[in-house]
From TrEMBL:
Its EC number is 3.1.1.29. Coiled coil: none annotated. The active site is at H19 (proton acceptor). The record marks N9 as: Discriminates between blocked and unblocked aminoacyl-tRNA. Hydrolyzes ribosome-free peptidyl-tRNAs (with 1 or more amino acids incorporated), which drop off the ribosome during protein synthesis, or as a result of ribosome stalling. One of its GO terms (biological process) is protein quality control for misfolded or incompletely synthesized proteins. One of its GO terms (cellular component) is cytoplasm. TRNA binds at Y14, F64, N66, N112. It catalyses: an N-acyl-L-alpha-aminoacyl-tRNA + H2O = an N-acyl-L-amino acid + a tRNA + H(+). This is Peptidyl-tRNA hydrolase.
Length: 185
């Protein structure tokens, strides 16, 4: 069994903001595959599907970004999913808009959602699909991550979301992090 979790903040106020990149990537995957969230439990919206012969939970925590780990750990513990079978989709300010990087494990890089997941899973050994949102130039970090992409940026993000869907399919098909890093980084 695999868990694919997109990170973001719940509520219309945060819809389409840079910090909701993980939600947007997962929403794109759901739409592309005619899937919907059909469960509200474990402090998240989720669905369990059979994809390429594998049981997969697609999850959007509804705990707000800084407490994402609570929801993810509840799902992982209930379904007995190992950390290496979890893929987290997150925004990353240290990369250009739309750039993708896969990581197999590691520190949080200052990302509060990832800090929460490390804390609640008790390990850094879970996979991350990072999508660049760039560091702000003339505004505060909080203002930057809570604003939407402009039209040029959105085009780059749409391409990143399409690539993310391919990464999700490869991950679900059993491709390990090293394969994903070699193919997509």
């Amino acid at each position: 069994m695999k868990i694919i979790a997109g990170l973001g903040n719940p509520g219309q106020k945060y819809d389409k903001t840079k910090h909701n990149t993980g939600f947007m990537a997962l929403d794109n995957y759901l739409e592309k595959n005619n899937l919907n969230f059909d469960k509200d439990k474990f402090e998240g919206h989720w669905t369990k599907q059979k994809i390429n012969g594998e049981d997969v939970i697609l999850l959007e925590p509804q705990t707000f970004m800084n407490e994402s780990g609570r929801s993810i750990a509840q799902v992982a513990n209930f379904f007995k999913v190992k950390p290496e079978d979890i893929l987290i989709i997150q925004d990353d300010m240290d990369m250009p808009i739309g750039k993708i990087r896969i990581r197999a494990n590691g520190k949080s890089g200052g990302h509060n959602g990832i800090k929460s997941i490390i804390r609640d899973l008790g390990t850094e050994k879970f996979n991350r699909l990072k999508i660049g949102i760039r560091h702000p130039e003339k505004t505060s970090v909080v203002s930057w991550v809570l604003t939407p992409f402009n039209s040029d940026q959105q085009k780059l993000m749409d391409d990143a979301f399409e690539t993310s869907a391919d990464i999700i399919d490869d991950f679900v098909s059993g491709k390990d992090a090293q394969y994903l890093m070699n193919k997509y980084n």
